[in-house]
Amino acid sequence: MSSLLEIKSSVLRQVQSRQSLQGRREPAAPASSPVTPCPDSTAPRVAEGNGEFFERMKNILQKQENMHRTAWTQGQDDSGTVPPPETADDACVPKKLTRRELDLLYEEVIYTVMNRVGVPSPDYVTNEGELFSYLQKVFGMEPEEHKIILNRVQESKRASYSLKVSVMEGKNLLAKDANGYSDPYCMLGILLGQNPREPEERKERKFSFRKKDKIEKRSNVREVLAANCIQATEVKPETLNPVWNEHFVFEIDDVYNDLLHLDIWDHDDDVSVAEACKKLNEVSGLKGMGRYFKQIAKSVRAKGDAASAVEENVDDFLGCLNIPINTIPVDGCDKWFKLEPRSSASKVQGECHLNLKLFTTQRDTSLSKRDSHLAIHEKLLSQILRYEHSQVKMEPYNWEGKLSQPAVTVLSHHAVQADLSPLQQAIIWWRCFSSHHRSQRMCYSFLLGLLKTIEEEWNAPSVQGELEASLADSFTLHTDYCLSLLSNMHQVFPCSSPTAITRCEFMLRGIGHIHTMHAFKTVCPFRKELHLEIATVIKKTTVEWYEGMISQYKPDEGTLEEKLRRLVLVVDAVCAEVQRGQNVYNKLFSSSVKVDFFILSYRQLEKLVAGDVSTAMENVCGTLEQEGSQLAHTMGETLFELYISLKTLKLFRETLPLRDTKMLALTGFHEWFKTSIHKWLQIVHEKSCDRIRRAVEVDQLEPVHNLSKHSTSAVDVTTCFIQVQQFWVQLDWPDSAGAFIFVTRLTDDVCSAALLYSELIKRKVEKSQLGQDNKNFTSQLCIALNNIEHVRMFLGNLPRDLDWQTLEQTMEESCGVEGKDQVDKALNAQLYNIDMDLQREAKRMITHLTDKMILDLKKYIQHISLSPDSINNDDAVSPLMKYLDDTLVIFNESLVKENLTRVLQGLWCLLLRMILDTVAENRGVSLEFYGRFHFTVEALVELFHAEGEGLALEDLRNEDYKALEEELRLNKCSSNELIDQFFLEKITQQRKLKHSKFGRISVKCYYEAPDQRLTVEILHAADLIALDTNGLSDPFVIVELCPHHLFPTAKSQRTQVKPKTLHPVFDELFNFHVSPEQYRHTSACVTFTVMDYDWLSTNDFAGEAVAPLSDFCGPDKPSSYGAGKMMQPLILHLSRTKPSDKPVLKMLEARTTDREAQEFVRKLRSQ
């Protein structure tokens, strides 16, 4: 398993797809860069101190956050700035007209103005002089030149006009048939202009194609409708709302006086005027048409009477319209006309929908004889918009194509006279404005509107030949122009300019709209898909931008550290660029042209960065792996900064699709830093220790503020640890095995730094006690304790701060349960050890604190000890209690809760030991003495418990407390009670003794109640210790009933001596008189003392054992010799306890006036 957790050897990624830094050809530096380098950005940095080191490391981490924030807010306050210029190739800029071309075009537009027809709209300019003045400015014509061209136009023929009439539909017509419907059709034509002298007569009668008045009765032959002006629609059977949608063209002789006349009839007879009129289309030539019309009219007049006699066979009149030509607007009209009666007696109703438009058929200008109307109108519009744009002063780059009234007037008249359809006009406007935009930029949203107009008016069959080719050419030129801008997008559309970004958005929407238009698909069927072209441009632009960064920062120059520092600038610039691409550009491209800008640019930049960094890190690792190499502090900072920058760049992969993240070049970039990270952690540890030393040095050991109980050094230390933890969190090491090693080392470094701090702060306090009073020293010592506790509590959060849980999970996933257990074992062991170490340091300081109180405590305890028996216990204890109360108040104010508990525990143990020592030193005194100290102990318990706010009662009644209580209790006992206690302790020890190196003895004991006789059989002994020089002993056993004050008449008895053996067999029997009152005492027992017989000197003590009489004497115990024979032997292990170790013996020994006590002690000492 350990192999899974070792640091793998550094394996640097070999990037084969791209040349290294040393082999790259330097491109030209870009015009602008998103990152501005500091003039001394590559100068060597000096480690001014530990605070500066951590501040720089903090700035490195904040740099990434600031970069993200800047990318989000960049350009928010620059909405009023002018966007950068949008330059284009000369091939994309339209060519200007020659002077000769301008003169011909000027003649054309003057001719248009002088041949205006139709009713102008309120927005049109009607003053001819104003129009001429405007056109002179547009064309730059001098007055003399204008006069010459004007005279030439005046001498030319006037333009010939025609009227295009579209009969669309009718509604709410009068029902003439029995079925409630009619069979309507229309007859229409042009009434020639009337004599201005006969207006009144004209008003008396209204013309009708079916009037029965004789021709000779008419006062003017001009009222007769010429045959070449008669047209008729289809008959729409059985309807009151007919839809015809038929189109007719009429030549106009007099646009000022002619009249459009229209009749609507209900078709009834088999052969009607409508049928005859239809045959006019079959007659060729105006003369033939005239003769045929005369025959129809004559036939109708000849049969006039008959027709009136058979009324049901005649077409019924449904209404008419009379529209003067001079009332038609310039742009034509498309409206509903209310039907009129032919006389006051006629009954009509309903409306008719007509579309009327005037246009010229012949123009006497040089340009119109040479070029098409489309080409002429395009030239005219181009010339006008060039002038109009030049007059825009406020934000000309954002001009929305709004033309002045003279310009609109001239263009409208020319479009009408040239008979340009709305689609043709839309195409011409698009071509002119898109072409003009390439030389002088304007609003992209306006261009988008022109495209939408083409789409709305699109009719593929009507766009052929020259018009189709010109539209395709305009689409291609505009798309290529926009792609050329995208190839320079960092300069043309920088994120720092919201205006430029808005322009980029509408530009993308424009070219995106072009490629979805039916018009584009029709005229440019073989153009590549737009998203492929844009993707190619983005990739190329991204590479060029990166090469510009390399050229600007030159990361292949200088020392190794300088190269890395320059490389950091490059990576940071890439991160900023990727962030901008994600936040700004990607939204534009994704929504407008369905291209993921972020994925394309990120994959390019990520690959380029990986190639350069891997090359640089090869050199770094090669240097660091050399024997004895050291990592300079500044180099370590640079490597850390480079790692953080790369990690930031890699984090952008989270927004990529999963399939794209597996092949990224930065996937394993952390492997490049494995060697350097180890050395960097060493630098961090050294700097941490230096910072801790400095923090302790400047610490005044005063609370940071009123609400805290620790000083500045504790804050500095935990802040240092927090920063170290943040460094680790930012590293975010992805390899579980490597992460475990780093976390283990980081934890060990933090723990050792914490231990160093505890030692330093303790030394500072110890050093500062010289020359200080006890109060100040106590205050400083309390603050030092709080500092250590502050750090200890902080370290308790290491598992959370260093995310041990995630580490355990990853190790379990990669190495199984064994890996998880190893993490848990190693890290928790470190944490446990440092916790123990810090608590140990705290206890030492607490001991130091309580030791300062020993003299005062001795004084007050001695006061209690020396107080006469006549003094009340409260008075004797009062000085000690007041001293402790004042001291505990100071502790409570100065210490945090955990330390207060520790100090109370330490002080409590000290008091118990001191009282115990005092009692032990005063054995054999009066019982009142011990009672007073018992009172003192109980008062102290109450003080330290503080009604549940202090120490818990179970903590107060610890082993020291129990020992003191026992000492006091025993000292209040009589000598016989102490002797009883002595044997009770021996009985207890005997029962606990399960094995002994001094051997064992086998006995039988049974009691005969009738005779009150105790029988003791000494059977044998085994494994006795050798006390003679021959390696053997001469053992014998002394049997006694104890204690003697219970058995005053009982004499000790002994066995025979068994020479030269360690396993003697005695088989001897002894009898003792024991009354029930005697054996009922808990201390009553039989003692077996094994001795080694020496005839020349004192017998040697070999061991002893004891058996309580309660085990043999009593109603439920064997009581006859025969029963005793059946008993199992009792095996007792021997012991050789030193009598001086017994507190009871010391108490008895202290009672020098008690003869029995002294005799008992003497006898035991003599063994």
TrEMBL record:
InterPro entries: C2_dom, C2_domain_sf, MUN_dom, Munc13_1, Munc13_dom-2, UNC-13_domain. Residues 142-300, 997-1122 form the C2 domain. It comes from the Eukaryota. Keywords: Cytoplasm, Endosome, Exocytosis. It is found in: Cytoplasm; Late endosome; Recycling endosome. Residues 640-761 form the MHD1 domain. This is BAI1-associated protein 3. It comes from Aldrovandia affinis.
